[in-house]
Amino acid sequence: MAKREIKKAVLAYSGGLDTSIILKWLQDEYNCEVVTFTADLGQGEEVEPARQKALDMGIKPENIFILDLREEFVKDFVFPMFRANTIYEGEYLLGTSIARPLISKKQIEIAAQTGADAVSHGATGKGNDQVRFELGYLGLNGDIAVIAPWREWDLNSREKLLAYAETHGIKIEKKKGQASPYSMDANLLHISYEGLVLEDPSKEPDEDMWLWSVSPENAPDTAEYITIEYKKGDPVAINGEAMSPATILTELNAYGNKHGIGRIDIVENRYVGMKARGCYETPGGTIMLKGHRAIESITLDREAAHMKDELMPRYAKLIYNGYWWSPEREMLQAAIDKTQEHVEGTVKLKLYKGNVMVVGRESEKSLFSEAHSTFEEDDVYDQSDAEGFIKLNALRLMIAGKLRK
């Protein structure tokens, strides 16, 4: 099939092996100008070196974009997702999934700014990320051309990639020590591990795989208490100190890593059809989720809370599958955000050896009524009212029971 005519492409570029090869491949295969975009999402690695790498490969200075997106990532993507208490398949806090719509958005914005007619990514043809990136691109600009090299080239092994790099003079930094056998993705919310030894779901991962957190066994022997203040469903302060969204998540990550919190090992169902085993560290997010559910427990109406819980799996699947920019996700978000108008107050948490325990919660908008719930004598609740309540709810059961006899 003939190559499409592309004048300029915006590449999601990290400066690593895959995207460096993609950059050169785009120049050669499509004979197009390439714009590089590198996002700082709090992955813990310097992003500025990508600038020099791009320059070394002939990219014009005005076509190199390196953006600090940490605050936007947490404020506009992580926090809205956590208002829904979002978990995919009971465990996964969607750390990779929630980063992709922001990257897609910025690529489309840069394409408009630079006059590019295409965007490109380094996701493989077996994974979820290709779907997430491309649904984002096309949802924001249906006329943009999408180039997915892994679906076009035959460089389907690390050996072929290295050979290509050597043939074309692409400098690949070799890290000291043994290279990690895992495919990893990191941002301010989490770090993920996939591949090789993890492809056997019966094998326990080696302890030295985990890069962020101490093991629960080696965590401090003394519990630590923290308080998180919430307003409209979002955390705004830790231990009484107001912080920006990205700073809050950074601080919670530090607490979680210290206490061995947020490790999971799961087999998940990918959107493209196969099951995949992944390990994740989501320390701050795990703490944040526990705190959010705690403040909701005293400020959110029962039926609103139950409906949120019913909607959450659908919402989680939309994010996991890449539909952040869909009208149905926006519809659910509007409903979720409406429930958060009075979700404010303070939660006290106890952190100890991999566990997050709620030990207190208070709010000026609390719906908890001690007068009604006390086991002691009260003047507000007539216990005899429960008899009629029970009989009315039992009526259909009584009628059906007589028929069964």
Automatic annotation (TrEMBL):
GO cellular component annotations of the record: cytoplasm
A GO molecular-function annotation: argininosuccinate synthase activity
CDD domains reported for this sequence: ASS (cd01999)
GO biological process: argininosuccinate metabolic process; L-arginine biosynthetic process; urea cycle
Pathway(s) per entry: Amino-acid biosynthesis; L-arginine biosynthesis; L-arginine from L-ornithine and carbamoyl phosphate: step 2/3
A Pfam family that the UniProt record links to this protein: Arginosuc_synth
Reactions listed under catalytic activity: L-citrulline + L-aspartate + ATP = 2-(N(omega)-L-arginino)succinate + AMP + diphosphate + H(+)
Residues of the Arginosuccinate synthase C-terminal domain: 182-399
Enzyme's top EC category: ligase
Keyword check for Amino-acid biosynthesis: yes
Binding-site list for L-citrulline: 92, 97, 128, 132, 183, 192, 268, 280
Ranges where the Arginosuccinate synthase-like N-terminal domain occurs: 8-170
Amino-acid positions noted as binding ATP in the UniProt annotation, renumbered to this chain: 12-20, 39, 122
PROSITE patterns reported in the protein's UniProt record: ARGININOSUCCIN_SYN_1, ARGININOSUCCIN_SYN_2
Keyword Aminoacyl-tRNA synthetase appears in the UniProt entry: no
Residues that bind L-aspartate: 124, 128-129
Top-level taxon of origin: Bacteria
Family in the record: Belongs to the argininosuccinate synthase family. Type 1 subfamily.
Protein name: Argininosuccinate synthase
Organism: uncultured Sulfurovum sp
Gene symbol of the encoding locus: argG
